């Protein structure tokens, strides 16, 4: 039997940050992970360069049933605190776009920093360790929990659940944290794959497949939220940063709206071409603004036929009537569709939903009704936007919980 101040289940971003911080506060800490190595999602993140935080972190970048829950931790451990940590290790990094900070070299640099911090805190890390049972201890003991694992039994005063969400099961994701929360009477909100590409079916799927590989900047909107980023057609539907971002706000059965020309007023542009006495066809001129392959396919698609846009495509620009222009402007500025679904957990970056934040303290991350039991990181019902926000939540929640374990 091993006795410790704190056991952290899950050696991902949140778990390693929490373990290192608690260890450096003088606590005896062990991280138990069932995977063959820790930090796998860090290694695969940001295309191998880990988008480890963002210059512009705000509570508004997070979704949760309780939007106030994330505020305290995000203000107590900020993006600048994490930047200060990585700067101590001389990490070379750059801002890619929209405040997103990436490693210049590889994501492993971030994992190495966390492992070095764990070593400074004397943290013991055990991989390939499956938790078979968690028992709450009562009576005359300092220890609140007993863990039965494939690596033997442990007792601890504080138990931190940092087992993450359900995305990418092949990387070790499990529903362990939700099951443990239920075991101790905490509530779980509905969970869904998020930051995930959309799938189409029928004619829309055929259209997307014919355009697979075409990327363009768009504004995408759903449920009163909009993002201006790049979008990509795929063999299954649509993807790219804009699509992943809006997937956080999308529920099955919702329409999404896409503006394919976010920086141009197409009606004004057509009026301009008409005033210049252009003799070109609409398709030719639109191909100056968007990839020609997209313009041609879009104007020939079923949705274009339904509104009569296909018959306008080959008209000379001078012959376009006011109603023609309205039809074309709507087709490119406010195209609506209903995705059939998402690609699911096998490609999703995160899980939306999780352990109900009403059952957890936003200051300590301790379960309100179970002294000594903590939940941090993605297992909680806190989901960030794409762009380094989810790691910042892992760092912040891990750091703050570590002050109390
Ligand atoms: P995380 O998933 O990191 O760790 C959970 C740990 O628990 C894992 O080590 C797992 O093996 C372990 N575990 C699970 N079940 C267990 C069990 N039953 N017993 C023991 N251990 C168990 N975010 C971001 O901000 N910037 C980015 O660039 C990216 N990029 C990115 C790419 C891809 C492909 C994905 C899938 C995700 C991202 N993310 C991201 C999201 C980010 O990776 C994610 O939000 C954090 O890793 C969450 O950190 P956690 O520590 O909560 O869970």
What's the topology here?
Blueprint lengths: L1 E8 L3 H12 L4 E4 L7 H5 L6 E4 L7 E2 L7 H6 L2 H10 L4 E3 L4 E4 L4 H13 L3 E3 L4 E6 L8 E5 L2 E10 L14 H8 L8 E3 L3 E2 L2 H9 L4 E8 L2 E9 L3 E3 L1 H7 L8 E4 L6 H10 L6 H5 L5 H9 L1 H6 L14 H12 L1 E3 L3 E2 L7 E3 L20 E3 L7 E2 L4 H14 L3
Parallel strand pairs: 1-2, 1-10, 2-7, 10-20
Antiparallel strand pairs: 3-6, 4-21, 5-6, 8-9, 9-10, 11-19, 12-15, 12-18, 13-14, 13-16, 14-15, 16-17
Helix pairs in contact: 1-5, 1-14
The structure holds dihydroflavine-adenine dinucleotide.
The DSSP helix count reads: 14
Per CATH, the superfamily of the largest domain is FAD/NAD(P)-binding domain
Helical fraction: 25-40%
CATH class of the largest domain: Alpha Beta
CATH architectural name of the largest domain: 3-Layer(bba) Sandwich
Total strands = 21
In short:
The protein is an alpha+beta fold and 405 residues long. Helices cover 31% and strands 22% of the residues.
Fold and architecture overview:
- InterPro entries: BaiN-like (IPR004792), BaiN-like_dom_sf (IPR023166), FAD/NAD-bd_sf (IPR036188), RsdA/BaiN/AoA(So)-like_dom (IPR055178), RsdA/BaiN/AoA(So)_Rossmann (IPR057661).
- This is HI0933-like protein.
- Its cofactor is FAD.
- It holds the Pfam family HI0933_like.
- This protein has 405 residues and is α+β, with helices and mostly antiparallel strands.
- It has two domains: 242 residues, FAD/NAD(P)-binding domain; 145 residues, Translation factors (Elongation Factor Tu (Ef-tu), domain 3, Beta Barrel).
- It is built from 14 helices and 21 strands.
- The strands form five sheets. Strands 1, 2, 7, 8, 9, 10 and 20 form a seven-stranded mixed sheet that branches. A seven-stranded antiparallel sheet has the order 17-16-13-14-15-12-18. Strands 3-6-5 form a three-stranded antiparallel sheet.
- Strand 14 and strand 15 form a beta hairpin.
- The protein is elongated and about 90 Å long.
- The protein starts with a strand and ends with a helix.
- The protein binds dihydroflavine-adenine dinucleotide (FDA).
- The site of dihydroflavine-adenine dinucleotide has 38 residues, from helix 1, helix 2 and helix 14.
